[in-house]
Amino acid sequence: MCKRGEFLIKKARSLLKISAIYVGTVLGAGFASGQELFLFFVRFSNRGFLGCLVAGFLFALLGGLVCRRAYRLSEKSHQAYLQAVFGRRLAQGLGYVTEVFLCVSFCVMLSGAGALVAAQWGLPGLLGSAGTALLCFLVFCYDLQGLSTINLILTPLMLLGMCFVSLFSEPETVPTFALRVNPDGVFFPYALFYVGYNMLTGAAVLVPASALGTDKKTAAAGGVLGGVLLFGLTVICTRALFFHPSLWQEALPLLSLAQRMGTVTGGAYAVVLYMAMLTTAVSTGFSVCRSVSRSGLPKKTAAGVVCLGALPLSLVEFSVLVRYTYVFFGVLGIFLIAGILWDWYHRQ
Q: Quick one: angle between helices 125-141 and 299-314, nearest 10?
């Protein structure tokens, strides 16, 4: 009985680690700030909640499918997974594109961290970016264990912070502005784009993370649980923004909402926003480090190369990096989604 109890605890722990890594990867600066939520969901009025449902379903389904497929691979690398799903030729091209996106995402998070540190605490932006790069380097030195540990610690704190601000903020008057934004717009493609570019990073991280599962079912359940948590958080935060139309022109709407609730809440949410940037930076940079280390470099050397190499690009303005990269990679992400679903159908 004692052994069975230990086994169940180990199984639950592995499930939580995988789901925490998944959630931590998606909850980047765009989500935690509220910018992504407005762009992909809030501006479509009530139809935006249908978009949340579509995105949540796909996050859960794709997370489970990626983890289940990856767990069965002898080599749990992203490139090996792509070859298993798309074949050698397509996998090579998609692998290059994904690596570029991961590098860009890593730089985006370092840039965002620097901008946040400068805006909220009055420190030099370079100090914020360099400090975040140093934290990432320390995590990368511990490989998969470091990735799972930091996500297991920070992800619950981020979930609690976002839920608190979204659920306990006082709603404004009836959001008449919402009815004039884009209520008749085609929300479905935007939900697909949102899942698409997040799955480029999500799949790259879930493949090695599947090794944390005690068996195939636990690994898949971790991906599904992560998707369900993302769905719930997306609905809660989208609803909060829907009832605060005066924040829609803000650069960081959820942070502005937290600041309305008081100085302490605003300061605490700024830390939550930084956590979101850090977990995404760690997850994307981790995948890049693994790719670099396959060239023969030791893991610590590869981590140093990635972190130092990203610092110059992190000096580019945060909004510029987002504007010219995420939409393009969102379209490519749909191709990845189609491949995952086709592989699942073909193997049934």
A: 160
Q: For 249-279, write each residue's pLDDT tens digit.
A: 787 889 999 999 999 999 999 999 999 999 9
CA distances from 152 to 18, 28, 179, 225, 267 (A): 9, 15, 39, 14, 22
* DSSP code for 247: G
Name every residue whose Cβ is closer than 8 Å to that of residue 128 and which is 6 or more positions away in sequence. Answer: 113, 114, 115, 116, 117, 118
pLDDT tens-digit map of 98-118 = 888 888 889 888 888 888 888
Helix (H, G, I), strand (E, B) or coil at 124: coil
User: What pLDDT score does 177 carry?
Assistant: 46
Q: In terms of DSSP H, where are the helices of 294-324?
A: 299-314, 318-323
Give the integer Cα–Cα distance in Å for 11 and 221: 10
On whether the CB atoms of residues 42 and 166 are closer than 8 A, the answer is: no
**pLDDT value, residue 242:** 87
The torsion region of residue 6 among left (phi > 0), alpha (psi -120 to 50) and beta comes to alpha
The residue whose two tokens read 């690994």 is 219
Position 314 pLDDT exceeds 70? yes
Give the chain's mean pLDDT: 87
Q: How many CB atoms lie within 10 A of CB 324?
A: 11
325 by DSSP, 3-state: which?
A: coil
With 0-12 / 13-18 / 19 or more C-beta atoms within 10 angstroms meaning exposed / middle / buried, residue 340 is buried
The per-residue pLDDT for range 121-139, each reduced to its tens digit, is: 888 888 999 999 999 999 9
